[in-house]
Each structure stands twice: as C-alpha cells, then as structure tokens.
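Thread amino acids onto this structure.
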C-alpha cells in the first residue's frame, strides 16, 4: 500500500476549512491567561497564609511563655510547702493571741482588784487604826540612819552615838556650849567621815 501524494494533498486541502489554527491559538492563549491568573491568586493565597501562620506562631509562642511558670516563682511543690508553713504559723499565732487575750483578761481582773485595794488603803488611815508612839518611831529612824541617842535618868538626851560611813562610832556630848546648828553640823560631819 502506497500512499499517493496527490490524494494526500487533496485530503489536506479538503481539511483546511475544518482546521482553523486561529481558534486553537485563542483557546491556548485564553488557557494560558487563566493559568497565569490562577497562579497569581494561588501565590497571593500562599503569601497571606504564610503571614497568618507567622502571626499565629508568634501568638502561640506568647501563649506558651505566659503559660510557663516563670523561673522567679517557686515550683508548685515549694509553693504548697510554703503555704503549709504559713498555715501552721497562722494557727500558732492564733493560739498565742488567744493565750495572750486570756492572760490579759486575768491581768485586767487582777489590776481591778489591786485598784480596789489601793482605793481602800488610800481611804483608810493606818495611824488612826493603831496607837503609835511617834517618839519611838523617830528614835528607830534615827538609829537606822546611824544616830543613837543616849538618854539620862531624867529622860533627856545627854549624848549621841554617831556611826560613821567607815564603821567608826563617835560620841557627841551635849554640854550646852554649842548651838543646835553647830551640833547638827558636827553630827553630820562625823556621820559622813
């Protein structure tokens, strides 16, 4: 079977009106244009999506950082132990306060009782309740200070024994040659020697 060229050319000439390369060209150009538009839209979508992913990644990192316990804070176990210690301290302080309030109440009652006793003692006159010999009291006070009067048979003071700070005992005789001030100065001089 051999192909006749004339028949082939004739067949191609008959097909020329059927095959219009311009329509095919326009179809291909339209398809390429549509593919370019689609490609640009996809590139824009990918760029927008990448920007959103970056933004969401930053938000995720910030959320992780805020959800993570800072290193300056104690661990949950240490915090619980510290809270238990504070609770124990609070309970011991509450007990101490309660004990102190009880002690305060008893001290206030004692203070009120002592105040009542003080008022009662202030309103009483112990000297009036007892008959006291003021002369004997004065002599006891003088003797405590280191001055011991020596009384003669008539009940008058004729001599005074003076105990000095050094422990020495001096005797002062009242012979009427000196004034009361001179005797007082002499006695105090001997007492402070």
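Threaded sequence (193 positions):
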């Amino acid at each position: 079977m051999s192909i006749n060229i004339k028949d082939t050319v004739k067949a191609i000439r008959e097909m020329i009106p059927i095959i219009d390369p311009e329509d095919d060209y326009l179809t291909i150009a339209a398809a390429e244009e549509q593919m370019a538009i689609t490609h640009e839209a996809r590139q824009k979508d990918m760029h927008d999506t990448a920007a959103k992913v970056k933004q969401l990644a930053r938000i995720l990192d910030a959320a992780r950082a805020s959800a993570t316990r800072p290193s300056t804070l104690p661990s949950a176990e240490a915090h619980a132990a510290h809270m238990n210690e504070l609770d124990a301290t609070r309970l011991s302080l509450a007990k101490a306060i309660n004990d102190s309030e009880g002690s305060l109440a008893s001290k206030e009652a004692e203070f009120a009782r002592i105040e009542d006793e003080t008022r009662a003692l202030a309103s009483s006159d112990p000297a009036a309740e007892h008959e006291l010999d003021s002369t004997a009291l004065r002599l006891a006070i003088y003797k405590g200070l280191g001055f011991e009067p020596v009384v003669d048979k008539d009940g008058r003071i004729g001599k005074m024994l003076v105990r000095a700070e050094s422990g020495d005992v001096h005797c002062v005789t009242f012979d009427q040659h000196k004034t009361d001030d001179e005797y007082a100065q002499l006695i105090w001089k001997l007492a402070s020697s």
